[in-house]
Write a structure and sequence with these properties.
GO terms for molecular function: ATP binding; sequence-specific DNA binding. InterPro entries: AAA+_ATPase (IPR003593), AAA_lid_NorR (IPR058031), CheY-like_superfamily (IPR011006), Homeodomain-like_sf (IPR009057), HTH_Fis (IPR002197), P-loop_NTPase (IPR027417), Sig_transdc_resp-reg_receiver (IPR001789), Sigma_54_int (IPR002078). This is DNA-binding transcriptional response regulator, NtrC family, contains REC, AAA-type ATPase, and a Fis-type DNA-binding domains. Keywords: ATP-binding, DNA-binding, Nucleotide-binding, Phosphoprotein, Transcription, Transcription regulation, Two-component regulatory system. There is one protein chain. This protein is an alpha/beta fold. The chain folds into four domains: 128 residues, Rossmann fold; 176 residues, Rossmann fold (3-Layer(aba) Sandwich), CATH 3.40.50.300; 72 residues, Orthogonal Bundle (Helicase, Ruva Protein, domain 3), CATH 1.10.8.60; 57 residues, Arc Repressor Mutant, subunit A (Orthogonal Bundle), CATH 1.10.10. The strands form four sheets. It has a five-stranded parallel sheet with strand order 2-1-3-4-5, sandwiched between helices. Strands 7-8-11-6-12 form a five-stranded parallel sheet. A two-stranded antiparallel sheet has the order 9-10. Helix 2 runs parallel beside helix 3. It is flat and about 100 Å long.
Length: 451
């Protein structure tokens, strides 16, 4: 973005404008000039610029006033002031209003080019950062949570409602791999909170001796090795969301402190007597049944009730099989981009096999399975042999009595006689390694059945 960038120079002295324009164009920048603030605003309306360089003292509209106008119309546009020694205080005051930097007159060419390059690089980084945030927001928004299953639709509708109350505690329940953190991030984004203020901590992954410090932070000298103050996850979540994953695995010794955080909205760093106010939403998630944990004595009943204000239970994938085709296409689109492969799609036989699978790993298992299949395919449709799934879900068994038993799984919408016939034909072809003559003999039918 630096070389070739469009720069607007504003100064009431023609000789100074000519000099600055020459310095910048020699360095490879595209430069336009304005003699006063009104002309500068008109040029900004006509063409996009990457940087404004303006004198501080000008008739009619000075640099500070021009800065305020530019900030209101183009808040992301960097603005640098030229100032003489006598008006440094005014330049410093202008920086407090949003000026990116200032340069002293008489102007030093090398210093000018260093400041210009620095501001353009910073703008380029900011643009990239904003694009990344927008991409993350789109990735985890409710619009990107795919489901046609009524049972999942009710969960998403409830989650969207609680997103409107940014301090309500939310508890997300569900098996491993169903997408509990994905839903938590969607609630966070829909709450219009800072994307960077979603702070996650896995209560099962951190040793009990470190979890309190990781969560609340500590002060210097709190324990052996604590040679400086350290912020915890609570501090970093200020103004956003603290996500406590696997809350059912939180040690009993730490649960009273979490209860206090929830009830009083305050917490204390380890080793400190001072209480810090907590201004963030708390979302917890677990694959455990917390009521049973309370009965077993591994989880406090009062904490359970305090967490269970707004429960959301994500159904396992086997209870919403109608989502599998849509999720499959969504993941394949991701892999087309990340792997740089065409990936024509998935065969009906492979899709049927996936529809029959019980998915103990849920959506995570589905994604991992499709990633593997996407890597091993070579431009053809994904077939059953690419999926690393056992054919056992079809439950074909031949007993000593020579009996054949088939078990197919259909949603109510897809079930029909034609669908059953297709499954039987696919099973026969799979059983006979796609040999149509053998499959016809197995089914005691004409070979024409397969055409």
């Amino acid at each position: 973005m630096s070389r070739g960038a469009q720069i607007l120079v504003v100064d009431d002295k023609q000789s100074f404008r000519f000099m600055v324009k020459g310095y910048l164009e020699d360095a490879g920048y595209q430069t336009n000039c304005a003699a006063h603030g009104v002309e500068a605003l008109a040029k900004l309306e006509q063409s996009p610029f990457d940087l404004v360089l303006s004198d501080m003292v000008m008739p009619e509209m000075d640099g500070a006033m021009l800065l305020r106008k530019v900030r209101s119309l183009h808040p992301q546009l960097p603005f640098v002031l030229f100032t003489a020694h006598g008006s440094i205080d005014s330049a410093v005051a202008a920086m407090k209003e949003g000026a990116a930097d200032f340069l002293l007159k008489p102007l030093n060419q090398a210093e000018l080019l260093v400041v210009v390059e620095r501001q353009l690089e910073h703008t380029c980084l900011q643009v990239s950062y904003n694009r990344m945030l927008e991409s993350e927001q789109e990735k985890f928004s409710f619009q990107n949570l795919l489901s046609t299953a009524p049972i999942m639709g009710r969960v998403l509708a409830a989650a969207q409602k609680v997103a409107a109350t940014p301090r309500t505690t939310v508890a997300i329940f569900g098996e491993s791999g169903v997408g509990k953190e994905v839903l938590a991030r969607a609630v966070h984004i829909a709450s219009k909170q800072d994307m960077t203020r979603f702070v996650a901590i896995n209560c099962a992954a951190i040793p009990e001796t470190l979890l309190e410090s990781e969560l609340f932070g500590h002060v210097r000298g709190a324990f052996t090795g604590a040679d400086r103050d350290r912020q915890g996850k609570c501090s970093r979540a200020e103004g956003g969301t603290l996500f406590l994953d696997e809350i059912g695995d939180m040690p009993l010794s730490l649960q009273p402190k979490l209860l206090r955080l929830l009830e009083e909205r305050t917490y204390g760093k380890l080793g400190s007597d001072q209480q810090v106010s907590a201004d963030f939403r708390i979302i917890v998630a677990t694959h455990r049944n917390l009521d049973e944990c309370c009965q077993q004595g591994s989880f406090r009943r009062d904490l359970y009730h305090r967490l269970n204000i707004f429960p959301l239970t994500i159904p396992p994938l086997r209870e919403r099989r109608e989502d599998i085709p849509q999720l499959t296409e969504h993941f394949l689109n991701d892999f087309r981009q990340h792997l740089g492969k065409a990936l024509p799609g998935i065969s009906q036989a492979a899709l049927n096999l996936m529809l029959d699978h019980d998915w103990p790993g849920n959506v995570r298992e589905l994604r991992n399975l499709l990633e593997y299949a996407s890597i091993v395919t070579n431009g053809e449709l994904i077939q059953p042999e690419h999926l690393r799934l056992q054919l056992a879900p079809l439950d074909h068994e031949e007993s000593d009595a020579g009996r054949v038993m088939l078990n197919f799984n259909f949603s109510a919408e897809e079930f029909s006689l034609d669908a059953v016939n297709r499954r039987v034909i696919e099973w026969a072809l799979e059983k006979c390694d796609n040999n149509k003559s053998s499959a016809a003999r197995l089914l005691k039918a004409s070979r024409k059945l397969f055409y």
